[in-house]
Design brief:
Elements: H1 3-14, H2 19-27, H3 32-47, E1 50-60, H4 86-98, E2 103-108, H5 116-127, E3 132-136, H6 142-151, E4 155-157, H7 165-171, H8 177-189, E5 193-200, H9 207-219, E6 224-229, H10 246-260, H11 270-275, H12 279-284, E7 290-291, H13 298-301, H14 317-330, E8 334-335, H15 344-353
Helix pairs in contact: 1-3, 2-9, 3-10, 4-5, 5-6, 9-10
Bound molecules: S-adenosylmethionine and FE2/S2 (inorganic) cluster.
FE2/S2 (inorganic) cluster (FES) binds next to helix 14.
């Protein structure tokens, strides 16, 4: 057995890797195939073959922030701004429910129009449909997070983007890394299922900082982790950056995440499919167990352009649901008809084995 094989086998059994070991696995291309196969086995043992679907509702592309990588940043005057009304958000959630989704993810730029009161009202109404609500609306005060939780939101996605503090504060001007980390801590303390994640391939990012990202997620510990390849948007300061390594590196981050946090939810992100026609399926075979198909009306989808080449711009919510189900079934997996809380699979599995 080679040293790499030994390291991966040990990680598969103990779910522990040191910073140095993570760096080795991230940087050695010979680890790739072994790593993806090991992550797939750990995924099967800890979260099963079911794939959880989350219906994504992109409800506003207004944003008060100016992240250098993001297509809907404040200073992108070419972005055609839109904002769904609370009624339209509710209608979209109803559509998601009709299509069989158990969870909706409400995502937007940091749009001050949606005050805490407005958000809470939207959450309460969607909650009445029996859906689990995930929010992905950025940095808020602890009081606001508490109010959303009280109104019925159960999950929150907030990527740390990178644990390299200097890089983060350079690429997210006006934002503070420790503030973002504090938000994650607040969310955890308030009883949310917390999702975080990294953008992979940012200029200046190193294997060392990616290893630190993984250790940061383990230390929180997160309930979900979304790893997205960075794809440069032409109307941002990072236009023209290469994406040559981003797909494989993101896949490796996902696989390592599965090895060290065996039972969390890991989405096969949409951006993966922008870089590779089978991107989400390959991710599902390398550790991922969640897909977030878009339920937003096609009129708005292309305006929520975080990066170019976004998939499914012409397909409506019904087509997206059917398409992804077909792809999942084709690799011998199935849609899981459960809310998909962290640890749910192992709990049910142990119970039925008794
Ligand atoms: N405003 C919320 C927040 O800050 O968490 C949610 C919306 S934000 C646009 C969602 C995620 O999009 C970010 O966390 C970031 O990782 C990702 N993103 C932004 N620009 C991207 C790009 N150029 N390529 C890939 N992903 C990108
Ligand atoms: Fe939308 Fe395939 S997932 S068309």
């Amino acid at each position: 057995m080679s040293a790499l094989e030994k390291l991966i086998t040990q990680a598969e059994q103990t779910h522990r890797l040191t910073r140095e070991e993570l760096i080795t696995l991230l940087t050695d291309p010979q680890a790739d195939t072994l790593l993806f196969a090991a992550a797939d086995r750990v995924r099967k043992a800890n979260v099963g073959d079911g794939v959880y679907l989350r219906g994504l509702i992109e409800f506003s592309n207004y944003c008060k922030n100016n992240c250098c990588y993001c297509g809907i940043r404040r200073d992108n005057s070419h972005a055609e701004r839109y904002r769904l009304t609370p009624q339209e958000i509710l209608q979209t959630a109803r559509l998601a429910q009709t299509l069989g989704y158990k969870t909706v993810v409400l995502q937007s730029g940091e749009d001050p129009w949606f005050t805490a009161d407005k958000m809470c009202e939207i959450i309460r109404q969607i909650k009445q449909l029996g859906l689990v609500i995930t929010l992905s609306i950025g940095e808020k005060t602890r009081e606001e997070y508490a109010a959303y939780r009280q109104a019925g939101a159960q999950r929150y996605l907030l990527r740390i983007e990178t644990t390299d503090v200097n890089l983060y504060e350079k690429l997210d001007p006006g934002m503070r890394w420790h503030q973002r980390a504090k938000c994650l801590q607040d969310l955890k303390e308030l009883g949310y299922e917390v999702g975080s994640g990294s953008l992979v391939g940012l200029p200046g990012q190193t294997a060392e900082s990616l290893a630190d990202d993984l250790l940061f997620f383990k230390q929180i510990p997160v309930d979900m982790a979304g790893i997205g390849p960075f794809i440069p948007h032409p109307q941002t300061p990072l236009k023209g950056e290469s994406t040559a390594w981003h797909f494989t590196l993101s896949l490796k981050m996902m696989a390592l995440m599965r090895l060290i946090l065996p039972d969390i939810n890991i989405p096969a992100t949409t951006a993966m499919e922008t870089l590779h026609p089978q991107g989400r399926i390959i991710a599902l075979q390398s550790g991922a167990n969640v897909v977030m198909p878009n339920v937003t009306d096609v009129r708005w989808r292309k305006r929520y352009a975080l990066y170019p080449g976004k998939i499914c711009l012409g397909e409506d919510a019904t087509q997206c649901r059917g398409c992804i189900e077909g792809k999942i079934n084709a690799i011998g997996r199935h849609i899981a008809h459960a809310p998909g809380f962290h640890g749910e699979y192992l709990k049910t599995h142990k119970k039925s084995a008794r």
